[in-house]
Amino acid sequence: MVINMKVACIQMDVLNCKKQENLEKALSMALKAVKKGAELVVFPEVFSTGFCYENIDHAAETFPSPLLENLACFSEANDCIILGSIILKDGNESGEEKYFREEDTGFSGNENEMPVNKNSTENKNSTENKNFTENKNSAENKNSPYYNLGFCFESGALAGTYRKTHPFKAENKYFSKGSSIEPISLKKQDLKIGFEICYELRFPEVARKLALAGSDLLVTTAAFPNPRSEHWKVLAKARAIENQIPHIACNRTGSAPDCSYFGHSMIIDAWGEVKADAGSKECVIVHDLDMSQKDEVRKLIPVFEDRRVELY
Question: Does the pLDDT at position 7 exceed 50?
């Protein structure tokens, strides 16, 4: 496993239902992060569209997805890890694998050049193509084809996905619930990432399950609104402290039609100390995390060894 890793939060204002504008901004900010040496970059929740309930079919991605192809290409061009969430439309109940193609996107990683998706389907099943699968988790709520989908790319490959298991309030009207909470395993970095989405920060069981499954790092992608900034700060630190694990908590800023957001994305180490705080404005924060600190903290305070699993 890597000893040190430069990680980044992209704290951005998300324009409601403006997919192309948000994608351009996100990749431009991500490019600034990788130029500062970031190896892992986290975007806010539904960063490409906001929740966009009024035009959710337009906001949603389906497979193959040009937006995900763009992210894969950026990840490959910059040899980095990218995480965030988008709205997915998945009406396929057959359980068949779905693919999108990385090739031919033409994105060089240049800040002034956006990807051009050719969306070709020629030789789709050729062994020469790089196909990425998104494993279909069954959902408790079968009424909606939409999911809040977390994604993780590692150097152009789709390392894993996560369907939000705890939608918040209005989300329950539009999104089905995911049914699996497992770390995402990276191959190149030999790293396990525990991934959760926004409201799930309030459920310590989610982070603990991910930690017990061997996560080396916790990532929360969020759209945590005003006036709950103190809750966000305390909960983000608590998840790191109680699980003795670094935590990258990436929140959005700006305004949506029905609320506003305070930002304060944070990079927190395994001891629970905030190493970087983004404040309230759009910005990129980067910090070099000591990934070996987790083991040192767990030796000093053996919380996991002292658990009374026969009682709880």
Answer: yes
- Cβ–Cβ under 8 Å, residues 34 and 75: no
Q: CA-CA distances (angstroms) from residue 265 to 219, 242, 286? A: 11, 19, 11
* Residues, the chain: 312
Residue 47 to residue 148: CA distance in whole angstroms: 11
Q: Which residues of 58-77 are buried (b: 16+ CB within 10 A; e: fewer)?
A: ebbbebbbbbbbbbbbbbbb
262-293: buried (b, 16+ CB within 10 Å) or exposed (e) per residue? Answer: bbbbbbbbbbbebbbbbeeebbbbbbebbbeb
Whether residue 16 is predicted with pLDDT greater than 70 in this model: the reply is: yes
Given a cut of 80, whether residue 2 has pLDDT beyond it is no
Whether the predicted pLDDT of 92 surpasses 80: no
Strand runs labelled E in 90-143: 99-101, 131-133
Strand order in the sheet with 283-290: 157-163, 146-154, 81-89, 40-42, 4-11, 283-290
Q: Is 299 exposed, middle or buried (0-12, 13-18, 19+ CB in 10 A)?
A: exposed
DSSP code of 210? Answer: H
The Cα-based distances of 27 to 48, 179, 293 in angstroms read 11, 30, 30
60-84 pLDDT tens trace: 999 889 999 999 999 999 999 999 9
Does the pLDDT value for residue 89 go beyond 50? yes
The sign of the dihedral angle between the CA atoms of 12, 13, 14, 20 is negative
Q: What is the overall mean pLDDT for the chain?
A: 87
pLDDT at 106 exceeding the cut of 50: no
Retrieve residue 76's tokens.
């490959």
Contact 278, 11 (CB under 8 A): yes
